[in-house]
């Protein structure tokens, strides 16, 4: 497959552009019998929607999802589920000057080489963060499928913004995550993070951060050796989010500095079930789920669009240029990303649950 | 595809088990006309072979590769290239007691749940680090293809072992990497790392570490938005290596704590070519190559097999158990992993070069 | 992939239902730079549209295509091209009684077993001939791509309707095909076929027929041994058309009764180019194109919906039932199918042209 | 995937060449727990082995299969099953003159264009009928899996050789098929077919023929709309057999000349189960199995290698040439093909049984 699709048995195909007519998603492979309406998708889209607080972009994107196939009498039919959001608040003029002047940190330069003068450069086109709405559309369905069929649940939340970092106990519900606009379940830390974002914005700069994601309720044995490991497929999906530059599982990079006796998770029997005492593995051994929570941490680089002068080149004139990115940009996208991470994790886990025969037939 | 294959147009299919008759690889999609002999593969296998120094396992695995299809008159024919290593030095008795007593940190537990009593548990079976020999067999061919067709070159080397860490300037050739048995191009650091490994071994413990990988010479525009980004496909491949728990590109997790103005790489023209001043992006923007070096860092957890008592469970008796892993194990696998990283990076980049039309037809 | 997609490097994903909101298609992998507008697709849709003559169904389906992604400034961008037709003239009441009473010859019965009560049975749902509009949407783009990039051209036409059969010399343009509503380039035979259809309709019955398809202008060597042969991929695509029950290439079934000396096509040099004297191979040897015209014949069974009483079962009551299919059905779909065959052949050939490196990069 | 693999969840990857070191197959996706030994594969290989009678080639190919991975303690483990046959009786000299003189009817010409001077032309290389041994190796495993898990059974047999044709009632076992060396269950017809083959051989010519294949015991609902129909996937697989030029299901091409009232299969209840009175659909409606036998007919062209002078070209000298094919060739391959058809049908049906959740987990 070319690059617009992901998955083996539950396949998401993404289409659309930032400033085109729409962004859309087709999810193929969802079993028949899942109760589904636009509301199930809309609430996750609303979680990532901009314009909700002073720390995100002031663009107003209604982002109303429409299901245009695959649902009949309120349930999935087994046919591909197509969903679409019609674009409305696009202001493409701001991008006119960018056609030959690539913005540092953006896809502009390689895209103009790859697609030539035919590249839809407006708003980043196909490379825009806006395309993560298509991940959410497909992922919201996968999420509901997992919850209904297996009681599997993913919660993702912010643990770092810039240099403000916090260690949190994974929350049991998403409520504390969405109780503040930073999406950090630790309210005090959230306040500090918020301040850091406002300060970066004021200074004409931007910030990145880290999202932690925890998935509970998995059966043992999801994953397909040796190239379809859960880590392989999760990281592959997560790296489709623009700005992601690092993914680690369990003890991750820190674990690389520990010893085997520290990092191994001893097995034990608890309430009659085999589990581990610690969870440095992040719930995955040999690429397979072991039933403990899957824990993943995702690093987002700071937003590339900053209202400062930056050095670049004019590719038409083939000479140096100076650029000050205009438009309405988030000073930090991390608070909008937890639902995107939730969505992609759900897609991958649901796909593996189908591959492994844990979900099959009519629900 | 089930899990044993990876790639779109250059597909590696891995087969075999640690203690079965062989480990093997089929590489499909390599163009006709590449000069190829066993020697081209053997030298990379030799780089990962155990038994070469006191800091790696004392198992003697000759690991002689045989090409059994796809090569005629010393060149590839366009047909799938099958390669095989016949297993020789396997001692399976050490694993007899493990059939119902999963080793902490290993795939034993989820594998016995997934495959039941039919799982080939000997030496980790399909999940063994030995299977990375199949990655190397396919990757060595991809590596030669890339070098011949595009002058693309990957060099991977160790930058951390346990708590000993070093920052190195990427070496121009692999010579300094392979001039010591730690595979760290900084000889002084290598000595300290070596000491750390010996000390861990003496203490009945094990270490992990970090490998850095740098790929140069890429054309601009490799990668397929949005799910076939280079980061997606590279991380997916790398996570097929047992023990890998973290992958980051460019400034990675550290970059998440910086600001946009610090982390963006300004463009400039150098010797008539567009490039960037810094390389915090790791050579990838929007999932596409930009022509600067692709830089990736890979975190390996410490070896799970340690000669210490560990808590586990007897799954047959369903009660706690204590295990002391026997056998001849590496106290640290990281020094053996650079050729595996080289191989997988080469596979992914060569696949994308074919997808992008940069390599096509008869060589 | 689940079943809604076809192709390796040029992938068509189909969505929608006969009586749902729409039918749609996403084509991924089309290179940037192809001039494309709705008109390029609409003319092929018009060729298969019902309601055009007395021998096809009287349903009025405007079938107006909208391109909703992947085109910018009148050219493809390299991004997936999504197209959609909004359904308008659906009358679903006629299908109410069918929910538990499967129509002989239709997918109703296996679909109700496979998808249970969630199956969208209206108008055949996902199995309707209407879905071939999605093949045409994707295929019309592939067709234009092939014509532009390689001067490859497919012409498909009717050679049999019921027992009326004719042998025709492949026409050089599609003009004689579309000069009559039977789509047979032999006008006299077309008149007899038309009469047969009218007679079947009058008698409350239906007819099938045969379509021949000829593709010219191919380079030598398209196709990928051993499972990606042109015959494999063409037949696979063609069998996605409801009603198709036979596919043969070159001398096909008749050739099976001949001898090697009769059936072999001797090579010769003509105008400095190697070609064959006869074309019993249908332009394909060893699964690869040889540069001569690809000839394929496709058998369509008679339309299953007939206004006669037929024996069936009531699956709810689990007892025999008698059914007389209502609704507005074609007495023969074959005259509407040539553009569908054209479309699918174009998709497969274009995909192989991309796989083989004959089309690559920006057009 | 490039062309050497087929399947979605049960994937066969073929490697090797006619005159190389071996032919081999890797089957990935077979569940753990299937009892399997070389014998299970060997008996089907023996059925297709040449040198068994005066009407097939006198080449002696021992064709001893070795299982080199994926089986432990006599059962499949869930890991890929690699099988290999080492080539022994190859005489490549006969092919020396063919390197620049393509044989009519063979892949020689397009292969030399596609792969240039690197093509392994010996014995047809990758395009040889010998490669069907790899289909049989994978298919024999699929066949056993289907029989064990679902009691599904495929029997294929010869119904036409040249102009000798017979209609047979599908046999209940393969015994009457293999009771004569033509593989036709009608002994009298087999004798006439045998005579026709001997006569063709004596006359320095060759014959083709038709194989019918019947698969019983299928559950309802195998197949994935719209591009993963059973007809699509079966025909795709069957067209990987060299010489196949036609595939039809149920009433096929003949059905195209009938009427809807004649061709529709009325439903009825028999022994409490829904089934059809006739089986013109060949057991497939809407691309899905309906539980009645799947019937398919496959047309094989006459063998291309004939010991007669044929016109061809010398591609090096670029001038006409005359060729008399040497070597030991079958005058008719059809009697050796039933196990190949059995194998491919089994592969496709088993793959769909896994996709549909009918086979899953550990056996």
How would you sum up this structure, described in words?
The structure is a homotetramer of 363-residue chains. Chain A has one domain: Chorismate synthase AroC (Chorismate synthase, AroC fold), CATH 3.60.150. In chain A, 25% of the residues lie in helices and 23% in strands. Chain A contains eight helices and 18 strands. Chain A is globular and about 70 Å long. Chain A starts with a strand and ends in an 8-residue tail after the last helix. The mean pLDDT of chain A is 95. Chains in contact: A-B, A-C, A-D, B-C, B-D, C-D. At the A-B interface, strand 1, helix 2, helix 5, strand 11 and helix 6 of A face strand 1, helix 2, helix 5, strand 11 and helix 6 of B. Strand 11 of chain C pairs antiparallel with strand 11 (244-249) of chain D. Chains A, B, C, D: Its EC number is 4.2.3.5.
Brief summary:
Chain A is an alpha+beta fold and 363 residues long.
Can you say what the CATH homologous superfamily of chain A is?
Chorismate synthase AroC
Q: Name the quaternary structure.
A: homotetramer
Number of domains of chain A: 1
SSE sequence of chain A, one letter per element: EEEHEEEEHHEEHEHEHHEEEEEEEH
Physical arrangement of strands within the biggest beta sheet of chain A: 1-2-3-7-4
Number of continuous helical runs of chain A: 8
CATH structural architecture of chain A: 4-Layer Sandwich
Number of strands of chain A: 18
- Determine the most extensive contact between two protein chains: A-B, 109 and 108 residues
**How would you classify the helix and strand content of chain A by structural class?**
alpha+beta
Shape assignment of chain A: globular
Enter the CATH topology name of chain A.
Answer: Chorismate synthase, AroC fold
Q: Helix share of residues of chain A?
A: 10-25%
The span between the termini of chain A is: 28 Å
Binding site for NADP(+) (chains A, B, C, D): 48
Cofactor (chains A, B, C, D): FMNH2
Keywords (chains A, B, C, D): Amino-acid biosynthesis, Aromatic amino acid biosynthesis, FAD, Flavoprotein, FMN, Lyase, NADP
Pathway (chains A, B, C, D): Metabolic intermediate biosynthesis; chorismate biosynthesis; chorismate from D-erythrose 4-phosphate and phosphoenolpyruvate: step 7/7
């Amino acid at each position: 497959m070319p690059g617009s699709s992901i998955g083996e048995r539950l396949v998401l195909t993404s289409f659309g552009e930032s400033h085109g007519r729409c962004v859309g998603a087709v999810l193929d492979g969802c079993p028949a019998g899942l109760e589904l309406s636009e509301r199930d998708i809309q609430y996750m889209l609303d979680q990532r929607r901009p314009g909700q607080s002073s720390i995100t972009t002031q663009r107003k994107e209604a982002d109303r999802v429409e299901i245009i196939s695959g649902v009949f009498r309120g349930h999935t039919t087994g046919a591909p589920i197509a969903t679409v959001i019609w674009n409305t608040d696009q202001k493409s003029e701001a991008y006119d000057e960018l056609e030959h002047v690539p913005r540092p940190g953006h896809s502009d330069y390689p895209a103009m080489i790859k697609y030539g003068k035919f590249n839809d450069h407006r708003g980043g086109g196909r490379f825009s963060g806006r395309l993560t709405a298509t991940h959410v559309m497909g992922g919201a369905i996968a999420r509901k499928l997992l919850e209904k069929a297996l009681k599997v649940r993913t919660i993702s939340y912010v643990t770092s913004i810039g240099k403000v970092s916090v260690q949190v106990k994974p929350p049991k519900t998403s409520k504390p995550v969405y109780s503040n606009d930073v999406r950090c379940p630790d309210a005090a830390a959230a306040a500090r993070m918020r301040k850091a974002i406002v300060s970066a914005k004021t200074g004409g700069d931007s910030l990145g951060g880290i999202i932690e994601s925890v998935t509970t309720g998995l059966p043992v044995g999801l994953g397909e050796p040796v190239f379809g490991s859960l880590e392989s497929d999760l990281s592959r999906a997560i790296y489709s989010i623009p700005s992601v530059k690092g993914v680690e599982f369990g003890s991750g990079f820190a674990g690389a500095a520990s010893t085997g006796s520290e990092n191994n998770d001893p097995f034990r029997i608890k309430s009659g079930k085999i589990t581990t005492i610690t969870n440095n593995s992040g719930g995955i051994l040999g690429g397979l789920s072991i039933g403990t929570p899957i824990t993943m941490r995702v690093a987002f680089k700071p937003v590339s669009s900053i209202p400062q002068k930056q050095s670049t080149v004019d590719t038409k004139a083939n000479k140096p240029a100076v650029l000050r990115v205009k438009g309405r940009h988030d000073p930090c996208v991390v608070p909008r990303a937890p639902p995107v991470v939730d969505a992609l994790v759900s897609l991958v886990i649901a796909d593996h649950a189908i591959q492994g025969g844990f979900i099959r037939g009519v629900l």
